[in-house]
Write a structure and sequence with these properties.
By secondary structure, the protein is mostly helical. It has a single domain (about 20-179), classed as Up-down Bundle (Ferritin). The chain has helices spanning about 20-50, 50-80, 90-105, 110-140, 145-179. It starts with 18 loop residues before the first helix and ends with a helix. Bound molecules: fe (iii) ion (FE) (2 copies).
Length: about 180
C-alpha cells in the first residue's frame, strides 16, 4: 500500500501561520459553539426526564459542560486567539433530534428516558470524537498545555457516556420494555 509521506519542512516555529493551525482553531470554534448550545439544551432534557437519576445526571453534566466552555476559553487564551463560536451543524442536528425525541415520547414514561439517553449519548460520542482528535492535533503542534486541558474534557465526556449506559442498563431499558 502506498504511504503518503511528506518531507519535514521544519516549520514548527511558523506553526501559528500554518493551515493546520488555522484548521485547528476553526474546529475549536466549532466545538465552542456546540458546548454553548448544549449547556442550554441539557436543562430542557433534565426537565423532560422521567427518572430522578437521569435528571440528576443531566444536571451534573450541565455544570460540567459549563466547565468545558470555560476550559475552551482557556485554550483560546493559551493560543493567543479570541474565543469565538462558529455554528456546529452536527451539534445543531443532534439537539434538534433530542427535541424531536421529547416531542415523540410521552412524559413520565421510561421510553422517554431511553430516548433521552440515546440522544445524550450521540452528543457525548460526538464530543469524544472531537476532543480526541483535537487533543492529538494539539500534541502534533506541540501545544502541551492545551493537550492537558483537552484531555481533561475528553475524560469527562467519556465518564458521562459510561454513566448514561449504566442508567440505561440498570433499569430504564427494562422498564421501557415493560411499558
Ligand atoms: Fe462537553
Ligand atoms: Fe458532554
Amino acid at each position: 500500500m502506498a504511504t503518503q509521506t511528506k518531507k519535514p519542512t521544519g516549520n514548527t516555529g511558523k506553526m501559528k501561520d500554518s493551515q493546520f493551525h488555522e484548521f485547528f482553531i476553526d474546529e475549536l470554534k466549532d466545538i465552542y459553539w456546540a458546548e454553548k448550545h448544549l449547556v442550554k439544551a441539557l436543562p430542557k432534557m433534565q426537565k423532560a426526564a422521567t427518572s430522578t437519576e437521569l435528571a440528576a445526571a443531566f444536571e451534573k453534566h450541565t455544570t460540567e459542560t459549563q466547565t468545558h466552555i470555560d476550559t475552551l476559553e482557556k485554550v483560546f487564551d493559551l493560543l493567543g486567539e479570541k474565543a469565538t463560536a462558529k455554528k456546529c451543524d452536527a451539534m445543531a442536528g443532534l439537539l434538534e433530534e433530542a427535541t424531536s425525541i421529547i416531542e415523540d415520547t410521552d412524559a413520565d414514561t421510561m421510553v422517554r428516558d431511553a430516548g433521552l439517553i440515546l440522544a445524550a449519548q450521540k452528543v457525548e460520542h460526538y464530543e469524544i470524537a472531537t476532543y480526541g482528535t483535537l487533543r492529538v492535533f494539539a500534541e502534533n503542534m506541540g501545544h502541551t498545555d492545551v493537550v492537558e486541558l483537552l484531555a481533561q474534557t475528553l475524560a469527562n465526556e467519556k465518564e458521562t457516556d459510561v454513566a448514561l449506559t449504566e442508567i440505561a442498563e440498570s433499569y430504564v431499558n427494562e422498564q421501557a420494555a415493560a411499558e
